[in-house]
Structure formats: structure tokens, C-alpha cells
Design brief:
InterPro entries: GH, GH_1_N_CS, Glyco_hydro_1, Glyco_hydro_1_AS. The protein is of the alpha/beta class and 485 residues long. Helix content is 39%, strand content 14%. The chain has a single domain, classed as TIM Barrel (Alpha-Beta Barrel).
Length: 485
């Protein structure tokens, strides 16, 4: 019988996670092209019509490019990691990071997405970042596509809706694998690949507003991403011996609101629709329940002859995911709604919520880890988890973010319980270890970091970095390998 760990493994990967479009800035520096994220404008909270104003029409893109639509685009500015990466990495090292999750901005390497040759200045930037990480013994965990589709691919091909983009992506992947083969071992293909069904523009540069069958377009684009992911997995194993490729899901564990069998059935279906993505990545085939969904919704995928074999023979090495909250599912139209990351559901009366209405459920993390490990029997990696909150800077510059410490403490405790349950968990990268621009709202006031960045929602501030109380707490957690919480 396999011996079960009673605590975190000695080689557990503690760290933090970011995305290029939310922290780098320098959107037009050193030959970088525009990406989908560069089209997302900041809308003040009192003027927002919805929480997730990130889906952009073809008309709005043209208005932005022509200058007709004027706005602030915070993801173009980020927190200037492009020029401050040495300072920021030194702070990560001070906390004791074993791993740092970041993404490569595809448009920094291939400015238009379909360029014949890569941009050397972009390649050199990531060389410099990886070298700086290795100087401190920090392992890079690199996401190839984190909501950063080159805009050129949207304008020319409608992004991932076109099969041609599969080839452009594999060229990009092969380029960076060869360039960084001695510097990066851990990779992820697509961040939260299920975003394609929520915001196709964000998830894959797909403009959906003119599509006659939106579901058809979304699921065809997803098929292209599945194939591209499998091909990239094949390439990385060939080019970098011993490398590890993971998939990544925005995991939304859900509960039936009542024991009414109709609620239980709907909850099962909601979980299946969320796990479909990792089923394809980790099992190498489409789950059968999706065929009924496709039949009932007039979705007919165009699948090429070799696609099934490509998916079957190139499954991922580990399954990564974000976890922020759980949802409650009900067939009843009644019931108070709860907001959440990408999704919404019925409010769970047993849970507290964050400043943004996201329900906080540490035990749900243990439930989810057990469910995922039972389903896939592959190593799991929590690559996003954290609390977005308002922070108050005291007169002496200190920030007493006990709420953030409590959030992480409770989730790490449940991770440890899951490991005792027998789950193979290889790492934990908290989301936004340094304050960065919010993906969904482009705010700075929605802060996740252990490191404070002096920048407000309107773009004002010195960009100075400072340590919050949680910085020192997380340093002790890592130093004790999760024993001192």
C-alpha cells in the first residue's frame, strides 16, 4: 500500500501566479504587437452595466483602433513589471518562492501572431526574466496563452475560430520551447480554457457578435485549442526532456441547493460542463455526455482525420486549476443570486463572501481536490487562489491585511487535509502575489497581493512596492513548508 503524506511533500512548489497582460505594461515597447487584452477599457464601477465587461464587439475594436473610442486601457500599463522585474523577483525571493507562474505574451514574440520570424527583443526579455528567477533558485511555471491572443489573428482570422491559428500557435510554442529549453521545465498551454464559453474574445480572440450559431463557433474554437494543446504537449516532450505540460481550468465546484433530485441532477450536469475541458486534456477524448449536448444544441464540430489520435496520444502530465469559490445550483427561479469569478449561482447561506461577492469556501477546495484526483489520477497543481479585497494603507505605510491571511490559512489547511486524503498535490501559486490589474474589471482597488503597489483605479500613483502583513506571514508558511500557519 502506498504511504500517504501527513504534510506537504519536501519538494512542494510554493509561489505566486500572474499574467503578462495584468502586470507587464510596455504594451508598445520593443516591437510588441497589440493583443486582445489591450482592447479592454476601464469602466468605473458606478458606470458598469455588468460585472464582466470584457466581451468586445468587432465594431468596438474598430472604434478603438481608429481613435473614435477614447478610454483608459489599464492592461496596457499593468504595474510596469517589464521595467521592474528585478525588483519584483527579489521580493518574491525574499518570501522564499520555489516557483513563479507567469505567462509569455504571444504578441511580444510574434507581434501579429502569424509573422514569419519571431521578435528577438521579446524573446530576450523573457530570457532576462528567467535568468533572474534562476539567480534566486525560483522555478518558472510558464503559461503559453493567458488571455493574450495577438490582435492580428482576430482581425485576419477571427482568432481561434479559424483552424489556421492552430499552426500559428504551434509555431509560437516550438519557438519558445527551443529558446527556453534549458530554463523552463513546467508549462501550461491555455489559462482557464473554459473562458471560451464565457467570453470568446478574452479566451481566444474570437469576435462572436456576428456569428449565426454562437455555440458552434465557441465549441469549434475550443476544439482548435484542444488540438493545439495536444500538439504543444507533444512538442515540449520532444524538445525538453523531463518537461511537464499541464492544462488549466477555472474550476467551479458546485453543490445542489437542496436534496430535490432535480437540483441534484442539475448540479451533476453543471459539474460535467465544467469538467469537460479537463476530461479532453487529461483523458484524451471527448466525454460521451458532451455528444448529447452537441446534438441538442445543433453543434457539429469539424474534426480532421488525425485529431482523435492527437488528443489520445498527447494527454497532459498534470492538471492545474484556479479555485476561488464554489457555487450552489437550483432548478428554482427563486433564491438570491451570488456573484463570482466568471460564473454566478444561488447564494449559499453557510458561506461568507468577499468584498466582490465571491463566496469563500475553504472546505470546498478539499472536496474539489479529492474529486479531481479521483477522476484523473494525475498530479494536481493549484495555480490560482486568493482574495480580492480593499486594502487600507495606514499613516506609517503598513497594511494589516488579516482577512487575506485568514483566507489563505484556511485554504492551505484544507490542502493539507486533501494530501492526507491521498491527493497528489505538487504545488500552490497564490493569485496575484503582487497587486496587479484585475482581469474582469481592470481595477487596481481589487487587490490580491502580499506586495502593495501604489497605483489606483485611475492610473495615479508612484508604482512603489511595499510589504503587507501577509508578505511576512506567507514567508513563514513557505519556510515551514506549510506547518506554520
Amino acid at each position: 500500500m502506498t504511504k500517504i503524506n501527513k504534510g506537504f511533500p519536501a519538494d512542494f512548489l510554493w509561489g505566486g501566479a500572474t499574467a503578462a497582460n495584468q502586470l507587464e505594461g510596455a504594451y508598445d515597447v520593443d516591437g510588441k504587437g497589440l493583443s486582445s487584452a489591450d482592447m479592454v477599457a476601464y469602466v468605473p464601477k458606478d458606470k458598469r452595466t455588468q460585472d464582466h465587461a470584457i466581451e468586445i464587439s468587432s465594431e468596438r475594436i474598430q472604434q478603438i483602433l481608429s481613435g473614435e473610442f477614447e478610454a483608459r486601457f489599464p492592461k496596457r500599463e499593468g504595474i510596469d513589471f517589464y521595467h521592474r522585474y528585478k525588483e519584483d523577483i527579489a521580493l518574491f525571493a525574499e518570501m522564499g518562492f520555489k516557483v513563479f507562474r507567469l505567462s509569455i505574451n504571444w504578441a511580444r514574440i510574434f507581434p501579429n501572431g502569424d509573422d514569419a520570424q519571431p521578435n528577438e527583443a521579446g524573446l530576450q526579455f523573457y530570457d532576462n526574466v528567467f535568468d533572474e528567477l534562476h539567480k534566486y533558485g525560483i522555478e518558472p511555471l510558464v503559461t503559453l496563452a493567458h488571455y493574450e491572443t495577438p490582435l492580428g489573428l482576430t482581425l485576419k482570422y477571427n482568432g481561434w475560430a479559424s483552424r489556421e491559428v492552430v499552426g500559428f500557435f504551434t509555431t509560437y510554442a516550438e519557438t519558445v520551447f527551443k529558446r527556453y529549453k534549458d530554463k523552463v521545465k513546467y508549462w501550461i498551454t491555455f489559462n482557464e480554457i473554459n473562458m471560451m464559453t464565457l467570453s470568446p474574445f478574452t479566451g481566444g480572440g474570437v469576435v462572436i457578435d456576428k456569428s449565426e450559431n454562437k455555440l458552434q463557433t465557441m465549441y469549434q474554437a475550443l476544439h482548435h485549442q484542444f488540438v493545439a494543446s495536444a500538439l504543444a504537449t507533444k512538442l515540449v516532450h520532444e524538445i525538453i526532456p523531463g518537461s511537464q505540460m499541464g492544462c488549466m481550468l477555472a474550476r467551479m465546484e458546485s453543490y445542489a441547493h437542496t436534496c430535490n433530485p432535480e437540483d441534484v441532477l442539475k448540479n451533476q450536469q453543471e459539474n460535467q460542463m465544467n469538467l469537460y475541458f479537463t476530461d479532453v486534456h487529461a483523458r484524451g477524448e471527448y466525454p460521451r455526455y458532451m455528444q448529447r449536448y452537441f446534438d441538442e444544441n445543433n453543434v457539429v464540430l469539424h474534426v480532421e482525420a488525425d485529431d482523435a489520435e492527437t488528443l489520445r496520444n498527447n494527454t497532459v502530465d498534470y492538471v492545474a486549476f484556479s479555485y476561488y469559490m464554489t457555487l450552489t445550483v437550483s432548478t428554482s427561479p427563486e433564491g438570491e443570486r451570488a456573484e463570482g469569478n466568471l460564473f454566478g449561482g444561488v447564494k449559499n447561506p453557510y458561506l461568507k463572501a468577499s468584498d466582490w461577492g465571491w463566496q469563500i469556501d475553504p472546505i470546498g477546495l478539499r472536496v474539489m481536490l479529492n474529486t479531481m484526483y479521483d477522476r484523473y489520477r494525475k498530479p494536481l497543481f493549484i495555480v490560482e487562489n486568493g482574495l480580492g479585497a480593499y486594502d487600507k494603507v495606514e499613516a506609517d505605510g503598513s497594511i494589516h491585511d488579516t482577512y487575506r491571511i485568514d483566507y489563505h490559512r484556511q485554504h492551505i489547511q484544507q490542502m493539507k487535509e486533501a494530501i492526507k486524503d491521498g491527493v497528489e498535490l505538487i504545488g500552490y501559486t497564490s493569485w496575484g502575489p503582487i497587486d496587479l490589474v484585475s482581469m474582469s474589471t481592470s481595477e487596481m482597488s481589487k487587490r490580491y497581493g502580499f506586495i502593495y503597489v501604489d497605483l489606483d483605479d485611475e492610473g495615479n500613483g508612484s508604482l512603489a512596492r511595499s510589504r503587507k502583513d501577509s508578505f511576512h506571514w506567507y514567508k513563514e508558511v513557505i519556510a515551514s513548508n506549510g506547518e506554520k500557519l
